[in-house]
Amino acid sequence: MATLTKYSRLFATQVKNNFVREAVYRSNFVTMLFTDLVWIAVEFALFTVIYANTDTLAGWTKEQVFFFLGIFFASDAINATFFQRNFWQFSDLVNKGELDILLTKPVSPAFLALTRWMSLTSILNFFFGIAIAIKYADASGFAGGLRWALVPVWLAIGVAASVLLRFAFAVWVFWTDRSWAITRLYFQFFGLATKPDAIFPAAIRYTIMTFLPFAFIGSVPTRALLWGLSPLETAGVVLVLIAFYVFDVVFWRLGLRRYQSASS
What we know:
The protein is mostly helical.
């Protein structure tokens, strides 16, 4: 309990520091807000064009896909707000020796590496996403009522998948020294998360449900909320997330050993 309290206070301090930092750069706030709105508009425009020519897409109606987009945007916004920016700094941690400072702190260096930098303006996307999901909930067939209580649960699963996946791609900086190529590869795969998994061929769908679980960010949570998952599917989600967590922890520790041995 004491540990949880300590890290909660530290996280709150990180939020406060980032808020002060971002308040200084107001033009950046406007630019990021505009960019995010364009991204949302493009995704909606794409599916609007598609559904102008068909009633369903792999069994999904337009309203169900728009509900999916709401859940996806909300989940991705949490990751973008609190974690995403830190992964862009991973190269500096290793190549500029910034990790040395984190290693001297009396808390987990991984926690500090993941929470130092935040993009608090991105939290607006969360509210946009929730508003979109609410707007299309009834038309999509979402049961509503007590099932709304499941939304935070599945959003948390989506965020966990986002962070674990991004970490799995970023941790290789300990061996490659530069992360741009792997980061570009990550965002190529990330495009698969912006579409319902049902539209993809079986091989791709299997991949984004197991080895590269990008479907967990928005598609699987949406299916769980609209239709529910079987016990086997639910167990699969849990096992894949655990596997990625173990992978990230193991390679983070191996990376730290490599970094510390090179620094000594």
